[in-house]
């Protein structure tokens, strides 16, 4: 590629929607071409990610949709915008055009798991690397969207956890009540790079794109003590492109399960997958042959099932926990109807996580005003309800009553801690009074609007 000294078109900064639309048009063309031609491969995508509108759209998407955490360089979005977004993107563009771009190490962050002493490893790239990752993701994602199976719901355009929950319910009512609830051990940390690249090359032949992905996969990890550790397998959680790469790798398993002439299809087994969380659902008990076959596939892919958390159950006898929901089979209340129906509601674990967030919010906040505490509470409650309120699927009302009681207690304790005379009248019915006079989110009303929404 010739050495260029071009810079980002300044006029595009004032028209981000125009750049976004141009990206969507290109993505649509790539998707249609890949859908029509099963053997189509992307040979010349590198020049696309160097375009002004591509990098500008990548920057805005990273800023608005991903973590604001800083990488090893300590550079934040505020610092970038203070120094000039134009200069920041121009430098990236020039480095890409002359093939001088080299990614930085990934900063490791440890997130505590529910199991005491265990942590989930997150890798936070620099904002510069995240922007380039987003540009590559936008270029190659349409090619893979044309291939991905309908049973895959995680980190995909126009698909969500809600769709996965709906599909699980449909499968149960269709008689698929035997469930193989799988748990992959450290999936993102153990993806074999060699096998992943074999799958990538089925749709991507551009050496420049593959070289960038290779850089990100092998980038050293900066540990908490500042030392660098080499990366020989896996794709770091926290990277913009990691969810797409994880979907590409597990797509091989999706194709085996969904093969109409395969062993799973002959056994009447359906699949529901959200990223590395997946279920196999059958009408009959899973035979030893099927279980051995699953183990063999995982072994061939270089993945390992966590046998302690992987379960085989029947929905009428045991609760199924999936994506924060609990599926239970409950006898009908009507004496004339002897059938069971499937009750789907937020799990106790999901509720406990919300309570932990509320506990942290109220901790040492006696100096806050009511208006401020309401302003802090509303996004938390709204976000929780946005996820768990699914029209004609989830039964959330009992959970809402428990949350209201818990919130009333927390508000009462918080108001009482501000002094005996402070908010004495409001303390009598704290939740209801703050809903009525201060604009606190009405949980029941909001959930009702969500479940009645046409968007559902």
List the main descriptive attributes of the protein structure presented here.
4-stranded mixed beta sheet, 11 strands
Characterise the protein shown here:
It contains 18 helices and 11 strands. A hairpin with an 8-residue loop joins strand 10 (325-331) and strand 11 (340-346). By secondary structure, it is an alpha+beta fold. Strands 2-1-4-5 form a 4-stranded mixed β-sheet, with no helix packed on it. Strands 6-7-3-8 form a 4-stranded antiparallel β-sheet, sandwiched between helices. The protein folds into 3 domains: 10-148 and 157-247, no CATH class; 253-345, no CATH class; 347-453, no CATH class. Helix 1 (16-36) crosses helix 3 (52-65), helix 9 (193-200) crosses helix 11 (242-258) and helix 15 (370-388) runs parallel beside helix 18. Mean pLDDT is 90; it is low at 1-5. The longest helix is centred in the first third of the chain and has 21 residues, at 16-36.
How are the secondary structure elements laid out?
Blueprint: H1 16-36, H2 46-49, H3 52-65, H4 77-83, H5 85-97, E1 106-112, E2 119-124, H6 127-145, H7 161-173, E3 178-183, H8 187-190, H9 193-200, H10 207-218, E4 221-222, E5 228-229, H11 242-258, H12 263-266, E6 270-274, E7 277-282, H13 288-300, E8 311-314, E9 320-322, E10 325-331, E11 340-346, H14 348-362, H15 370-388, H16 397-417, H17 430-438, H18 443-452
Parallel strand pairs: 1-4
Antiparallel strand pairs: 1-2, 3-7, 3-8, 4-5, 6-7, 9-10, 10-11
